[in-house]
Amino acid sequence: MVETPKPERFASKRLVAGFVVALIAVGAYWWPPSYSEIQVIPSWWVFALISVAAAMIFASRVLRQSMMIGASVAVGAMAAIVVRVIFDVIADPTSHNLWPFELVIASLFIVPSALLGAAVGVVVRRLVPRN
Known about the structure:
Elements: H1 11-30, H2 40-59, H3 66-91, H4 99-127
């Protein structure tokens, strides 16, 4: 009888956790200031650092779905930006007239950073012995 490999425990929970952590971390930085107070370019670097850190932490715990964890962190960070756009547009419909470009530029920083963080997490998991 051939045994099928069991999926890693809690992998899907880590996917959700990566999404939620990125959403809350980016949201905590992005949501409080008013739209006129935000400096966009420095914010993208903060989002990239948050994405690297979150993906690295979660991917270092799960080996098989590490790139999925990186993707879930990226989607969580992007969701925080979408939430901000939605609330700003509700308050002032002219405030985000270029929101698609805002999302594209953010994704250029966030997605590679999250995938890099996941890759670093995999390397850490393979190099650090587990007890």
